[in-house]
Amino acid sequence: MKxxxxxxxxxxxxxxxxxxxxxxxxxxxxxxxxxNIAKHLSFIELSKDDILFxxxxxxxCVCFVVEGTLDVIKESLTGESVIITALHRGRxxxxxxxxxxxxxxxTVKARTQVKxxxxxxxxxxxxxxxxxxxxxxxxxxxxxxxxxxxxKTSSRLADYMLPLT
Length: 165
Hints:
Strand content: 25-35%
CATH class: Mainly Beta
Helix content: 25-40%
Number of helices: 4
Distance between the termini: 44 Å
Order of helices and strands: EHHEEEEEEEEHH
CATH superfamily: Jelly Rolls
Mean pLDDT: 85
Low-confidence stretches: 1-14
Number of domains: 1
Structural class: alpha+beta
Shape: globular
CATH topology: Jelly Rolls
């Protein structure tokens, strides 16, 4: 896998309200709240096979897929890389990193050319200071999303467990 090479990076230059309103993390927010969040977002583009981040790295942002596909890759016990999911437009990755200080739990690689919107922990903290109500709404959505993911993972794990005898 090759290292991440950012093609373009900067502050959002185009209106992204429609995109954010259709993103699960922000879908319950009002238009004026979305505009407030947009001030804190950046964007990057990745080429096919670029690594967004590696398992074990320190995380500092959540990313939202605007275009393209990302593969989420986990190393198995045997050392093989396994694609555990693919992320498309509107999906997010890295939510845990803006609320905890643990290393990344998986590697994320661009399957295609990808455009991402990024909210860093630093910008999220600024957003929380400026508008705690919006920050609380986002934290609630992150909590629901993580809870849903944990429930799905528990169900999958149960499929591989031996039945109680």
